Amino acid sequence: MRTKVAIIGSGPSGLLLGQLLTEAGIDNLILDRVGKEYILGRVRAGVLEEGTVGLLGKAKSDSRLLSDGLPHDGFSLAFDGRDHRIDLFGLAGGKRVMVYGQTELTRDLMDRRELAGAKTIYEAGNVTPCDFDRSTPYVTYQKDRTTHRIDCDFIAGCDGFHGASRKAVSERSMQTFEKVYPFGWLGILAETPPVSHELIYANHPLGFALCSMRSASRSRYYIQCPLDEKVADWSDDRFWDELRRRLPDHHAEAVVTAPSFEKSIAPLRSFVAEPMRFGRLFLAGDAAHIVPPTGAKGLNLAASDVHYLFSGLIEFYTDRSSAGIDDYSARALSRVWKAVRFSWWMTTIMHRFPDTSDFDQKIQEAELDYLTHSRAASTALAENYVGLPY
Ligand code: FAS
Ligand code: PHB
Q1: Does the annotation mark 100 as catalytic?
Q2: Which residues line ligand 2 (CB under 6 A)?
Q3: What residue ranges define each of the domains in the chain, with the CATH number in brackets?
Q4: Which ligand is nearest to the CA of 220?
């Protein structure tokens, strides 16, 4: 079998790249080790930058997003029992974010791909990128007790943090940077109206909490938890009580509880692999970098990687120029590191770190005080949150 671009991974990165290539008439094929329903069962991101929304439009996959997505002009920081609204629209030059679940975005891209007749091979075992240091790369995989080979021009490693693509690169060809945070996020989904029409990021002595949503009737809440917590130890009642403790009274009293239908713990880490290109293999999205979800950057960085990679591939196939693909890693990493910085910074000022010193705690409080009383500081927060330019 042969294709122009073999994409490993059917998450947002792989699907968005695949859809953009298909719309441009560039043959591509996606392989994933799990099935479609498993992918759609994952609950992840919820906030999209305008750049991501634009790319989904270019991929002709934005109709539900535009009809069901919730445009947000601001969010609140809550601490010391009070709210402080960050006016994204006013501070970031009229830009806003869109609240729309990653699960729905993934479904939209999958549906569009099927409509376009583009091929996805699910439940592909032992997917292996081969000969990507030569001009004739290929991918092998196992299915139905047979080993298959796909010859291609390029391989896009869109297979997430635990995927095979980054691991196929020799360690001496790559430098990695990592920071693991001493806590995780316990998140739930419940069919209940969100406590507020905008997101609330709360810093409380008991820990961080986030009030988010998926629609006017479906809420997404998170609380910071120790790394050794077990989901089974968290009944819904225990979660709701702890969430309320961490919110200002007027919000705590307004929380409408309902049985959760999803409950999971996500670890927090910052990770970057450099470079993001190895011959004919390109890494994109979580395969190349991970950010703590505090800044809502993970999915949006995957989108900007795809923007740069797609532009480079289009240049190669239409102008026979490799300038874009040669520049991919440097361009992507420049935006990645600024988002890694912002996500680290927002995590640092909004969470309670175990063993923090009295001095560091006072610095955190001064940071929040400055942030919510300085237009310059809140403008910097706003322009990063809505997304820096591509
Ligand atoms: P993904 O991990 O989404 O997709 C990778 C795909 O590759 C998967 O379908 C997987 O099955 C497949 N794959 C893996 N290994 C393979 C192999 N060897 N062979 C073939 N296929 C393989 N971001 C936010 O902005 N906000 C959040 O709240 C948030 N919460 C998150 C919670 C969790 C638990 C996780 C893990 C991530 C979260 N993220 C969040 C980040 C998340 O949204 C990612 O940024 C986003 O999924 C990145 O998309 P992809 O790069 O496509 O990677
Ligand atoms: C979410 O709704 O899942 C969400 C929103 C904002 C974040 C992280 C997660 O910063």
Answers
A1: no
A2: 45-47, 199, 212, 220, 293-294, 296
A3: 5-70+101-177+269-346 (3.50.50.60), 181-268+355-386 (3.30.9.10)
A4: 2
